[in-house]
Specification:
Elements (H helix, E strand, L loop, with lengths): L1 E9 L5 E10 L4 E5 L6 H8 L7 E6 L2 E2 L8 H6 L2 E4 L10 H10 L5 H14 L15 H13 L5 E5 L7 H16 L3 E5 L3 H7 L2 E6 L2 E4 L5
Parallel strand pairs: 3-8, 3-9, 6-7, 7-8
Antiparallel strand pairs: 1-2, 1-4, 4-5, 9-10
The structure holds adenosine-5'-diphosphate (ADP) and magnesium ion.
The site of magnesium ion has 3 residues, from helix 1.
Length: 222
């Protein structure tokens, strides 16, 4: 699902965020990417999403050379992936249901179909009693579950999450991971960047360790 060949990322100003990274993640895997702050976790995820371009090497995702995508196809590329950020990025003036349903808008589904699928995604994260509220009234854990419903409603082949439990207490973090595991069990490849060692310990999944932009440990399936 993901292949990185000799990938480097150098930011303007000279910081080498990634240095000759080689990595393979198979379809259907659930992997953590960990390492200290500044190790390059977010940079790696941003390359997959084509939010950044590699300075060297090749990034292949689902058979696509991501760096070779024409700029005009980048929005469509991102829509095909499930993305969960630490800061949720919810739309404040849309209800929970609308926040999820609008993702399907661009895919040309009927309004009825959008709402039905959005409701099902909200039910999967146990937010179906909150469909008509605005994000501001939701708790941190509920907001994150809403963000996850939105990320998976289009049934992406790949779910990418950057510190998805960073703002949540440990019990909620475990709950979010349970959802990711369910999504993974339905066939979605899941890649989670986190510096939360307790969480990784509890989950017992392949863990890739980054240090100063290089792979310290590529991890293995437990
Ligand atoms: N947009 C940017 N411009 C310049 N340097 C950056 C940028 N983004 C990240 N960096 C630097 O790249 C390195 C890796 O950062 P990052 O990928 O965010 O690591 P992590 O997510 O593991 O904390 C750090 O030294 C960081 O300061
Ligand atoms: Mg980061």
């Amino acid at each position: 699902m993901i292949r990185l060949h000799d990938v480097s990322k150098k930011y303007p100003g000279g910081v080498m965020a990634l240095n000759d990274v080689n990595l393979e993640i198979e379809r259907g895997e659930f992997v953590f990417i960990t390492g200290a702050s500044g190790a390059g976790k977010t940079s790696l995820l941003r390359l997959l999403l084509r939010q950044e371009l590699a300075s060297g090497g090749q990034v292949l995702v689902n058979g696509q050379d991501v760096g070779a995508l024409p700029r005009s196809r980048v929005p469509q590329w991102r829509r095909g992936l499930g993305i969960v950020f630490q800061d949720f990025k919810l739309i404040p003036r849309k209800t929970a249901l609308e926040n999820v349903a609008y993702v399907l808008n661009v895919a040309g589904h009927s309004r009825e179909e959008q709402r039905r699928r959005a409701y099902n995604a909200l039910r999967a994260v146990e937010l179906h009693h909150r469909v008509n509220v605005l994000p501001e009234v939701l708790s941190g854990g509920e907001k994150q579950r809403l963000a996850i419903a939105r990320a998976v409603v289009s049934e992406p082949v790949l779910l990418i999450a950057d510190e998805p439990t960073g703002n949540l207490d440990p019990d909620l973090a475990v709950e979010i991971m349970r959802l990711f595991r369910e999504i993974n069990a339905r066939g979605t490849t899941v890649v989670v960047a986190t510096h939360d060692r307790d969480l990784i310990q509890r989950m017992q999944r392949r863990t890739i360790v980054l240090e100063n932009g290089t792979i310290l440990d590529p991890g293995k399936k437990p």
